[in-house]
Every structure is written in C-alpha cells, then in structure tokens.
Amino acid sequence: MTSRTRLHLGWWAAAALPLAFLGFFFLWPLATVLVRGLWDGGFDWAGTWAVVVDPRTVDAFVTTAGLATLGMVGSLALGIPCAYVLYRLRWRGQVTVRGIAAVPFVLPTIVVATAFTALLGRSGPLGFLGWDQTVWAIGLAMVFYNTSVVTRIVGGSWASLDPRTADAARTLGANRRQAWRHVTLPALMPAIASAASVVFLFCATSFGVVLVMGGTRINTLETEIWLQVNQFLDMRAAAVLSILQLVFVAGILAVSAWARRRRERVLGNRTVDGTRPINRRDLWVTVPTMTVLGLLLAAPMFTLVSRSLRIPGGWGFDNYAALFTDPPRSVLPVSVWQATLNSLVTAVIAATIATGLGLIVASLLARRGKRAAVLDGFVMLPLGVSAVVVGLGMLLTLNRTVLGVDLRGSWWLVAMAQAVVALPLVVRTLVPPAKAIDPRMKAAAGTLGAGPLRVWTQVEWPMLRRPFGLALGFAFAISLGEFGATSFVARPDRPTLPTAIYRLLGRPGAENLGMAFAAAVLLAVLTASVMMVSERMRTPLGGDL
Amino acid sequence: MSGLQVTDLVVKYGGAHPVTAVDSVSLSVAPGETVALLGPSGCGKSSLLGAVVGIVDVDSGSISWDGDHMTGVPVHQRGFGLVFQDGQLFPHRSVARNVAFGLEMAGVPEPERRERVDELLELVGLAGLGSRPVTDLSGGQRQRVALARSLAPRPRLLALDEPLSALDAELRGRLAVEVRDILAASDTAALVVTHDPAEAEVMASRVLRMREGQLV
C-alpha cells in the first residue's frame, strides 16, 4: 500500500464517524419523513395533495410567510438605523451597547416567548393593547430577536464603505438625500438583501415563539406539524407539512445564497475604515433609534424579571423557591429543578458529541479538495432543515428497537437531536481557524519526523484549543435552550427546562405562570453565563458566526 | 551510490490548467555537499525541493538516499529537513521548544534534548533566547530558529526553500555566509533553492540552474 492510499484510507476512516452519526440521527429520520409524506402502501400523491390543499395547511403557509415578512420588515426598519449608529458612527461606550444589542440572539426562544407573554399577555403591563395571541405580538418578538442580525451584517458592510464615494456624489451636485439614495444605499444593498434573507429564514422557522404566543389562534407550518402530532395524532399530515416546510426553507436558502454571492462580488477585497466620530447633526437619528432599541430590549426582559418576583400581595422569591418543589402531577411530573438537571445532562452530552464530531470535521476540511467540499455540504445539511422536522423525523424513525437497542423514548435521543442541531454551528466555528493553519506548518512538523497523528496533536490541536472552547460553549448554550426538536423527542416524564417552561405556561393558575417566569429567568441566566464564559475563548479567527 | 540521487523526476499539477512543474530532472547531492538550485520564480525549483522532502506528490521518477528508495516513504520517515522561506515556526511554542520539536518526535530523552537545543542555539547565535516566544523575534532571528529547528534532529539532508528571501538585503548578505558556515560546521548535505545568483554562489559548492521545469 502506498503512502497516498494510506492517507486516503485514513481520511475516510476519520470521516466515517461524523458521516455515520448524521446518517443515523439525521438522514434516516429525514428520509422517513419524506416516505411517510408521500407513501401509503404505495405512492399516494392524492393523499399528499389532500393535506397540501387542506384549508388548515393553506392558512398555516400564509401565516408562516406573512409572519416572516412582518419580522423581516420590522427587523430591517430598526436594524438599518442601528447599523448606522452602532457601526458607521464612533462614540464612547459604543462597544458595550453593541454587546447588549447582541444579547437577544443568544437567548433561547422559549425565554423570549415567555418574556413577551409576560409583557403583552392579558395580565401583563401592556395587556390593554389586546395584542395577546396576535401576529403583532409575534412579529414584535421576532424583531426583538433579529434586529441584532441585521445590525451586525449591515453594520459590518457600512463600517467599511468608502465615504469618499458619497463625497464624490456631493461634489457632482447631489444633496445629502440624493447621495444616500443613489450611492450609499446601492452599495449597502447586497448586505441588506443578505440580512433580509437570513432573518426571513429565522422567522419562517421560528417555532417556540409562535407556539407559545400564538396560542390556539395562530398557526405556522411548524406549529401545525406539532399540533398534528400532539393533538390530532396524524403523522401523515405532519410528514406532508414537513415536506412543505423543507421545500419552503430550500427556496429561502437558494435566494440567500444568491444574495451572498452578489454581496461578495460587490465587496471585493478592498477594505477601508469608513467610520466617523458622531456629531450634533447625527442626534436626530441616534436618539430615536437608541430609544426604540432600548425599549424593545429592556421592556420584555424587565417585565419577565419583575413578574417572576411578583407574589400575591407583594414581592418575593416564592416563585423561585417553588422551582425546587414537586408541583401537582397534572402540571409537571417532576420539579423544575429536576428538569434543569435533565437539561444540563443532555446539553453536556450533546455539546460533547457535537464538538467532538465538529473537531474531526474541521480537521478534515482543513485539507482542501473535492471530497472536503462534499463533507462540508453534508454536515451543513441540518442547517437547511428546521429543528421541528429533525425532531419529527427522529420521533417517527427511532421510536423502535434498532440493532437490539430499544430506542423508544430513550432520554438520550434528546441529546442526539440537540447534537444534530448544534453540529453545523460548531463546524462553522471550528473550520475557519482550522483552515487558517498554514499547511506548510504541518509540513514543517512532518519534515521534523512527526507522523499525521502527531502533527495533529502537536500542531493543529494546540492552535484549535481556544476555538474548540468557544464551540463547546456555543453547543452547550444551543442545547440548553433547544426547543424545536426537543419538544418532539423529550419524554413527558423527563422534561428539559425549556419543555417544562412550555408546560407551565400552558397550565392555568397564577402560581404556574409565576414559576414559568422564574424558570425562564433561570434559563436565560444559565445560557447567558455559558455564552459569556465561552466568548472569552474567541480569537481573531474564532469562526464566522 | 551515497547521498541523494534524484532520477528522471516528474511532478505534475492537475486541475483546470495542468502543468508539469518538474520535467524529468536528475541530480545528486553527496554527503556534506551543498548544492544550490537557481532559477526564476515559477521554474519548478520549489516543487522539486518539495518532492525530494516528501511534501509534494511525485508522478514518476525516483528519489533515493544511499541507494534506498524514498519515493514511497512518508515525509516524517525520510529524515530530510526543510527550512521554509517564512520559517513556519510553531507560534504556540517557545524558541527552545520549537528547536526541540524534532527531537521530541524522535523520542530523545529530556536532558539530552536540552543539551542539543542549547548547542544549536549557540550555533545559530541565539544562545540564551530559548525561553522567548517566537512571536517576539525579528525576521532574521526567526530564520535562525527555523534553521536550528531543522538541524536539531540531525537530518541526512537539509532542504532550504528561499531561506533568506523574506529578509532585507543587508541581513541577507550576512546571513548567507553564516548559513554556509553553519552547514559546514554540522557537516550536513544541503539543497538550497534560491533566485539570487550571489546567494547561490556564497552558500553552495555547486550551482544547478533550472528553467521551465528542467535543469539547464
């Protein structure tokens, strides 16, 4: 066997583990969904079509597209001025504000949904608006979530835009507004389009927020899948809806890829510092923008915390104390504290698996080539499939005995589902630093007598340690707050913290609502601490998240 | 036949525009001898060097040392060192631990290792700088560390790929003489790739010229 053949075999041997994992816990479940959606003792197009044209489905599809549009427009309307104020202008304290503005994005969906329920629900301080269970409330929560995405993408582009191009337009007789419309806006357009498509995708696959805040009145494709499984027990309809959602998401991704290609073409490789110090004339945009952003961020979170401390006749920590007691069985089979422990255990397992596999994948992708591109595309697949579809697939597929192992309701399936969801983000965090290691440095180690394994342990691993820590933190935080897939595979008697919060929100009684608020605060604090610790691991090459 | 023997070596790069970088080149380097490969950039001299060391795949032809075939031997088992143009020092290791890397790979015990590292730092004029992080060094110092690192495991042959071209002209002239003396002092066979005729004359006892993949 030549050394080249040995190298090929080694590559495939290392790739086998992530491929097998995704094949078993992702591709197989996904294929099952497709088959269940199209097959009923034979190819059953009529049955599929009946679900597609069912008024409930049409309604869910229209709602999904409408809500995503609403969330996208709202996020752009607030995010573009924020990009200007936070990235184009320079002022003291700006970095801190950028950090605060980025917080919502790392919060678990169930926390955001709970916070907006606290604010806009009938008993909330803004309950008089009558926005409870309306698209406006859900749209607002989506804007809360995604403004930071727009701000970061558009801001990054804006900060490196050469201001002299607009100056040139001014010397040619354009007034401020004309210069903005004809020069600056077209230059920003690719970034705006790219941000818009990403936000649209996030909104279209936003499950937890719609499930919690939509109540019985508002259903998107995702919540309709959940309802078909959990209330109507119609797996066939759920599978057909999943196929619709897959097609919808694929369409959004195609548009988004097209927008990104254009963005790269326009940006080129010349970067300039286009920022400038703030001055008095900027106040008319700065003050309103920061006020709206501040209110949007502070109001729900402040209300959530304050209502978690509200008890009959005053204030206290009773809701938090209740987290440690066993609630009535009709509410929750275990204490919230036990659910928190469940969450921590599954998140540790999920994060370990996702980062372990991610590290293998990143090391393999660092050696460029055609097969690397194939592997890259394969591990990114879960990103194009919503967590709800992943969860449904696992429910349909792995609810049986496989190879002598009884998987029915196995609690560790939750960890596997969370690992599938986290893997693409882990890979995206680890691949850039892995690719940044000069192949000639590895060759240098080779000429000094290090075999492939020792090149990895002595050269690659020391340089990937910090990004690995960052990815581990990301994966842990994602798993901790994961709701879409988890809500399908978590056993009712072994809830995770997010599914427990959902259960509490759905039960009548002020004390249950109070506990839900306290539990949401707990989850937010846990997630935020994990993110803060892992952000310390960020290096200049800490991935492109 | 002792030393390095390269016979009818061919290196091709595939892809959209396939090129033959090295077109049936034969050469030899005797033990203790320093040979320079001189040619313009893109003439294939670095590919030839990479193929000899084992980091570039060979299409046909053979490479042998003392009559033993090296073509199928993986890079880490050839016992050939390589000094890169930009050093390629390990940023996570100190100067001494960079120099010690090859010795660690060879399983040399700690006391002996430390002795050898000190000896090499002395040889390249960096005695006492062992505990420095490599990121603190100047360009000239980095190349000295790279040279010491490659020499430490006593390679049978040392390949140097434009070892001085990242440095400024004055330093380059001075270091070329030093490298020649260091190679002579360590009695290592060496193959130096350069585009600078003066440098080739100073460092090597024999100069081979290369153009468009062939020796001329």
How would you portray this structure in words?
The complex is a heterodimer of chains A (545) and B (216). Chain A is 74% helix and 2% strand. Chain A has helices at 3-38, 45-52, 55-88, 94-106, 109-120, 135-159, 163-171, 176-204, 208-214, 221-230, 235-267, 283-308, 318-322, 336-366, 370-380, 387-397, 412-436, 439-447, 452-481, 486-489, 497-506, 510-535, and strands at 89-90, 276-277, 310-311, 314-315, 401-402, 405-406. Chain B has 216 residues and is an alpha/beta fold. The model of chain B has no long low-confidence stretch (mean pLDDT 89). In chain B, the strands form 2 sheets. In chain B, strands 6-7-8-3-9-10 form a 6-stranded mixed sheet, with helices on both faces. Chain B is 33% helix and 26% strand. Chain B contains 6 helices and 10 strands. Chain A binds chain B through residues 2-4, 6, 438, 440-441, 443-451, 454-455, 458-459, 462-463, and chain B through 53-55, 57, 72-82, 84, 88, 90-93, 101-102, 104-106, 149-150, 152-153, 155, 159.
In percent, how much strand structure appears in the residues of chain A? under 5%
What would you give as the CATH superfamily of the largest domain in chain B?
P-loop containing nucleotide triphosphate hydrolases
Count of discrete structural domains of chain A: 2
Poorly predicted regions of chain A: 541-545
In DSSP terms, counting alpha (H) and pi (I) runs of 4 or more, how many helices of chain A?
22
Share of helical residues of chain B? 25-40%
Low-confidence stretches of chain B: none
**Oligomer state of the chains in this structure:** heterodimer
- Supply the CATH class of the largest domain in chain B: Alpha Beta
Name the pair of protein chains with the most residues at their interface, and give those residue counts: A-B, 22 and 32 residues
Structural class of chain A: mainly alpha
* Whole-angstrom Rg of chain B: 17 Å
Could you list some keywords that capture this structure?
heterodimer; A: about 550 residues; mainly alpha; MetI-like fold; 2 domains; two-stranded parallel ribbon; two-stranded antiparallel ribbon; 6 strands; about 75% helix; B: about 220 residues; alpha/beta; Rossmann fold; four-stranded antiparallel sheet; 10 strands; about 35% helix; globular
